[in-house]
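Hey team,

Filing this mostly as a record. A colleague (T.K.) asked me to run one chain through the structure pipeline before their review meeting, and I want the input and output archived in the tracker in case anyone asks later how it was produced. No errors, nothing strange. Just documentation.

Input sequence:
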Amino acid sequence: MQGRGIVYLHFMLQACQVTQQKELKQILELQQLYLRGKKGPGEEAEQGFLTVAHSLTQLHQLHEREPSVIVKDRDTLAGYALVMTRDCKDIIPVLVPMFRHLERLCFGGQPLNNYPYYVMGQVCVAKEYRGRGVFDMLYHKHRELFRDSYRFVITEISTRNLRSVRAHERVGFRTVDIYRDETDEWDVALWDWE
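Output structure:
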């Protein structure tokens, strides 16, 4: 597979949508390893971190609307990228302020809400699979699956999570806003598929 001049050696890695209950459980297991505060500050600064913990019920509700994308190495979960459509905003209460902030933004001279888009609910790659193209596989599968239904995907990244900010820029995301709330400073980044 090639993308943006990079050749990825996938071996047994496969990008696909979630189809099984066990895959949702694997997402939660992987998520627990990388939540903010689980690792030391040095490792978090170097390797990145996740901000929001989900429940199995919440993942089911997200996947009822749009199944998320995972990369598997046979039966092992190498990474995931959760889809959050705009009608998901009340499923995860801690994210309601993010959705409210997005509703106030403009893109291309128009309110963001004039466009069909979804939010990247969370992206994570297992440490042992980093540097093997999994992050890019996740996002390129998103574009392949969703570009006919959505104009773009948008996400918020803690500006302290430099690894994630750089990885999103590499894929094609561009910052459209930076703001601070009571929890952190956020880089709002958008990947326009047109």
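Quick notes for T.K.: The first strand starts at residue 2 and ends at 3. The chain has six helices and eleven strands.
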